[in-house]
Amino acid sequence: MKILHTADWHLGKRLENFSRLEEQKQVLKEICEIADNQKVDAIIIAGDLYDTFNPPAEATDLFYKTLRTLTKNGRRPVVAIAGNHDSPDRIEAPDPLARACGIIFAGYPHSEVPKFSTEAGLEVINTEPGFVELKLPEQETPLRLILTPYANEYRMKTFLGLDDEEGELRSLLEKKWADLANKYCDNQGINLLVTHLFMIKKGGEVPEEPDDEKPVLHVGGAQAIYTENIPPQIQYTALGHLHRFQTVDNTPSPTVYSSSPLSYSFSEANQQKYVVIIEAEANKDVVYDKVPLQSGKKLLRKKFKNIDEAEHWLKENPDTLLELILVTDNYLTAEIRNRLANAHDGIVTIIPELISAQEETTSTSSIDLNLEMQELFKRYFKHKHAGQEPNEEILELFKEIQAVTSEE
User: CA 114, CA 323: separation in Å to the nearest integer?
Assistant: First the structure.
């Protein structure tokens, strides 16, 4: 059986003022083509389907159209769980109609998938909260999935019926997963865990979360879930949340973050993105491989000390999204910003790195409110901009605002 693992689509995501929707259309089309070319039997999407609880209409439209393509008229199941960016209720809302197309949604850790079958031969043969067993068309071996969508620690314990408020979440989850695995996951089927959690190898390196990602079940790693908490019957754990591809551990079985399909923050600049293809057989170790994605604009960070050099580089790197750092001893003028904007239409942020050292300030610094407003503004500006004096343009703009305010 071949299974495609993807996660963290973040549909509707913007990068400052830049929409990523067209890039998302391209990369989801590419994922559909990979699924067809690889002849996969099932698709797993491990959370963060959308970027917000209330995604724009074009994002939901793209999501459902993509899932419909992936299911191949109900012959290939798509199983999607909620992440920490998703509204569980929104994820599960279309469930009755989705099931007819071979799509299974799980919004909560205690969600239960009703038994159903499609005309194409897909069938749910066992189900209880947090677990589903599927009979796939043209496959004799069943696919068993333990599903644990995101919930905060308090709700996770409540949803799973765990009344040990003092117990560590990781040990409580371990018990719940073990109960399901012991009940359903024998060596006659393919057994996977699908979850949207912060998971690490105990004693191993703690991976960083993306700059703009909402932290999940951990504070400084204290509530990270350990790979040793995964039941031994599980052959592969499909993770969502971290945006860089990484194999967290291979013991007791591969535990993998597939990566997001696009780079969504400049902390992900120059990252290659992937989907994962899993080849699984009952009672055997899985084989998995990452397939690189080619769609989407590159996110690049670059520092310059010379405006001419920056302008030249910008023209050589079109169709990218950029964060520029300019080393300067002057505040960036409108003329400089216009030159850069004319050289490239994908500049997201320009960060001036001032050469002059920041003036030292202490908690005992006082403000003389008897000074004129312009002098107060100058001092405030220098304080906020590492000792840099405001230029004439800034001062004239401040005077203009002052004049308008006085008139009102």
Answer: 48
